[in-house]
Amino acid sequence: MREIIDARGLACPQPVILAKRALEMHKRIVVMVDNAVAMENVRRLGAKSGCEVTIDKKDDGTYHIHMSRTHTDGDTAMASADGITGDTSCHPGQRESFVVVVSDNRMGRGNDELGYILIRSFLHTLLQLTPLPDRIIFYNSGVHLTTRDSEVLEDLKQLADSGVEILVCGTCVNYFGISDKIGVGTISNMHDIVTSLSTASRLITP
Amino acid sequence: MTEPEEYYVALFESISQVLRSEKILKNAGIPHKLIPVPRHISSDCGVCLRFTSNLKKQIEDILAGKVDVIEMRQL
Fold first, then answer.
1. Are the Cβ atoms of A151 and B15 closer than 8 angstroms?
2. Which residues of A touch B19 (CB under 8 A)?
3. Distance CA A203, CA A100 (A)
4. Domains and CATH numbers, chain B
5. Same domain, A50 and A116
6. Contact at CB, B34 and A151, closer than 8 angstroms
7. What is the pLDDT of residues A78-132, one digit of tens each?
8. What is the per-residue DSSP string for A10-57?
9. Which residues of B touch A158 (CB under 8 A)?
10. Within this chain, do residues A65 and A137 fall inside the same structural domain, yes or no?
11. Which of A114, A117, A158 sits opposite B34 (nearest CB)?
């Protein structure tokens, strides 16, 4: 039996939360969503939870995401899932995570022009750090730094190529109307952001 | 990603000179990048402009008389 979750019309992170709950109770679920961002977020949840995921794109623009927990992986992963932390659940005893939070396209407060110089320097210098952060989260005006015409795009791409996961807040991108201008990273949601923040062992913010 | 290109940096007296130069280069459409002054050059937390070596002459010319460049140095 498949559990069907109709998450069409729901704002993020609702589809992810519903999918997560359903996965805790059912082995096979189908999540229906009506936009690509929600589809991507649900797909990632499935991948993280050790599910087999297949996406079925419908003619009306909706997506049916089929997820089934594989016997061993899925069961262990889900069994150790503690509520909201989808991230750590698939790797019990996971190593520490180092997260950088960029909540502004300036560094510090006081002078914007100076702040913009500093944030560019900061992100460039981050490349020289060992170990590199596991993840950089961009939200609020920080998302402007991830656009294709961003002056730090090259640095961010290098970070991404070096294995740093770059999460860009979907709500923020939507608010600023720059969804089609993002040049690096993955459009993410509050669920992933809260999970990343709450499971980080080191968190720095410029 | 970036090929092993040869870079130069232009060093300036002050941040405001860096900004003025950046504005000039931006308006002229000359590719460059604002980066912290590399540690082997100075221990200040200053910033400088980096560009590929082939642009050196062009940048020298366009900045001449407008901004004081302390030095252009190969990286």
1. no
2. 113, 117
3. 6
4. 7-74 (3.30.70)
5. no
6. yes
7. 444 444 444 333 333 445 799 999 999 999 999 999 999 999 999 999 998 988 9
8. PPTTHHHHHHHHHHHH-SEEEEEESSHHHHHHHHHHHHHTTEEEEEEE
9. 1-2
10. no
11. A117
As a whole number of angstroms, the distance between CA B8 and CA B51 comes to 6
Do residue A158 and residue B19 have CB atoms under 8 angstroms apart? no
pLDDT tens across the length of chain B (75 residues):
556 689 999 999 888 899 999 999 999 999 999 998 888 887 666 899 999 999 999 999 999 999 999 999 998
Q: How far is B61 from chain A (nearest CA, A)?
A: 24
Query: Which residue in B1, B36, B47 is closest to A158 by CB distance?
Result: B1
Residue A89 CA, chain-centre distance (Å), reads 16
Instruction: Give the total number of structural domains in chain A.
Output: 2
Closest-CA residue in chain B for A122?
B36
Cβ atoms A38, A4 nearer than 8 A: no
Q: Which of A120, A158, A161 sits opposite B34 (nearest CB)?
A: A120
- B chain contacts of residue A120, beta-carbon cutoff 8 Å: 34-35
Both A164 and A138 in one domain: the answer is yes
Where residue A49 sits, what CATH number does that domain have? 3.30.110.40
In the β-sheet with A28-33, what is the strand arrangement from edge to edge?
A3-6, A28-33, A63-69, A51-57
pTM (two decimals): 0.65
Whether A34 and A119 share a structural domain: no
Residue range of the domain that includes A24: 3-89
